[in-house]
Amino acid sequence: MGGTPPAPEGQMRQVAIFRHNLFKVSEPFITEQAEHLRRYHPLYVGRLRYGAPPPGAESLALSDLVKGWPIPFIARQMLTLDPAPYLRLLKGRSPALIHAHFGVEGVYALPVAKRLGVPLVTTFHGFDATLSTAALLASPAYAHYALGRQRLARYGQMFLCASDFIRERLLGMGFPAERTRVHYIGVDCGAIIPRAPEEEALEILHVARLVEVKGTEYLIRAFALAAPQHPNARLVIIGDGPLRAKLEKLAQVCGLAGRVAFLGAMPHAQVLARMRRAAMLVLSSVRTSSGRVEGLGMVTLEAAATGVPVIGSALGGIPEVVADGQTGFLVPERAPEALGSKIGALLGDETLRRNMGAAARERAAQKFDITRQTAVLEDLYDSLLEQE
Hints:
Blueprint: E1 13-18, E2 21-22, H1 28-34, E3 40-46, E4 48-49, E5 58-61, H2 71-80, H3 84-89, E6 97-101, H4 103-116, E7 120-124, H5 127-130, H6 133-137, H7 143-155, E8 158-161, H8 164-172, E9 180-182, E10 203-207, H9 216-226, E11 234-238, H10 244-253, E12 260-264, H11 268-275, E13 278-283, H12 298-306, E14 310-313, E15 328-331, H13 336-347, H14 350-367, H15 370-386
Parallel strand pairs: 1-3, 1-6, 2-4, 3-5, 6-7, 7-8, 8-9, 10-11, 10-13, 11-12, 13-14, 14-15
């Protein structure tokens, strides 16, 4: 690759943060990481903006190139992988490298990076490493990814994995071990201050998109088993999705009317504020019939940083966050009885909750602090550019 020249002294290099759907409320971790860069300047690049960019951030979207309804124009690029629209969008810009979030984006960013002569970094978060090939091919949005994944593995410069679990999945697909490494994005342990004991309420918190992989059904059934012994406890569910109506009906059938609150999707700051009230966070994820598995569960890191114990399913990347019996509990997937037992154990023991919460915070600060993790990321960027 020809690459871009070094930035003038005193001027930061630019990194294009590539995500098709920019600034989604369910993906604060992408901007959170980018805004913690200190030696690189992020430029957000994608198809459409789904929310507001961070204050002062630069963003470019394919929708900027057309007047009126942009979907037909974007659909053509989606079907062809033609890099030309992105090259038009980036005209006059000189990113030193491209960092794509999700393997799908990596496949689309690859020809753009090649034309610009810059390295491509791709972060894999979950579904992009676990969803079956058949399921990917059945989706118009993911079919090109299924067909182009091996090309990405061959020509991408670096592959970052949200967990050890994700890395093992990628290696099994043929990604090169020497270019595939684990990199936890982390959470802002400076901004997230451990909550005070008096902030806690007897609330079980679940933050998730309401889709099969999150296993919300099993959490509701588990709460129904624990609820009679803990009449003051409530289950609070933050998130929306296609299963919401079905889950609301299940809560009623289980006799939990008035004890389960469906709050819908909320801005990230409000989620963090609500987390400070939680007695525990539960991520009851499952393996779906299409093969999808939880890659890590960023919300578990946020809970840990807040000093909240976590109960999670013992699969995917969740065990990399939850130290069973120390910072929370791990339970089998699709097992309401086991999950209900652990929920009851935490609800009935305030000292246990506080001890586990304190241990979770310490673990988050030592292993998952975003400032430290982003400094490591910038060193990885440097190592690629030094090879040019």
